[in-house]
Amino acid sequence: VAAPKDAPAKLTPQASRWLEPVIENFGQIADSAHAPLLRAMMKPLEILHEARADVARVPSVMLVRNGPVVALGRGMVREYVEMTPRIFQRWIVRAMREGRYEYVERPSLIVQRKGVDNYYHWMIEFLPKILASDWDGEERRAEVASFGSPFIESSIDYLGLSENVRAVHDTSALIFAEAYLPRFVNKGGPRDTRIDGYFCELHDRITARTSAPSTGRGRVIFVDRGDAGTRRLLNREALLAVLERHDIEPVLMTGRTIAEQAEIFAGADAIIGIHGAALTNLMFARKGTKVLEIIPAALVPRIRCYMDLSAVGGLGYSAYVEENEMLERENFNLDMARFTRCLEEFLEAARG
Fold it and tell me: How far apart are CA 144 and CA 150, in angstroms?
């Protein structure tokens, strides 16, 4: 498959590092009756944003699950609830009612906003800004609230970012006397899955840290969503039988540390999975690893995040679009005959 006709012929210096592997990767995307090319992929990934994030100082900020909101000071917190946009209100009310909030007097960097409890957004958007935020002062480090998400602290430990994070708070709200917020350039909201230049420094760190060699046995894994709350396969048992016949290992990510998940993805020669947050771990896969993402057709117009992540990492990405209708909670049936043909085509390329 050739690169799209509208792919830029000449790359700007700041973009070349990212666009070149993306355009090269288009040649690896399967385009056949068994693995239709995603309609959302007709333009190459563009990461034109600066590699460092400008930071703005904001006095008196409250951080809740939906993001940072400007507060009015310690004495006005309860009164402020009445003037807070409805999107934040329930989180502030809950924190005040349960007494689960903390005051932070020292200057602190805040990288969190709505979507922080989503693994993809945390790893791709928020965590990189801890490294990329450009501000002065050795003691000005990030303060992070986990909001009950174990991967937040686990990822900080695994990637060696403890020196950049002063504390991880297990609380429902943080109130800062002096906060520093990085700009979220051209972000359209929590559903905006685009990768920007802030990911660069973190990706370099991941590449240096993830060094699991190939097994040499053509190890293929299937990232199982059998215990997920949404987007589950209704004919999962039929799929597992097909996977077993082709010596493909199903793996669940639930309950594993970031280090364990990274080891699994780095040790695979090919990765198959239904669109979901667990595929964020493609950031740990070795360059050249083959990827087959299963995507319900209804999601295609707005989904390209794992194609982009694969392109950044130099992975061989392809996609299978399932045309069966999504039912309640985005659950669906897989057309097993059609998918099996796609799988065999994929494995032939992956295992050589």
Answer: 12
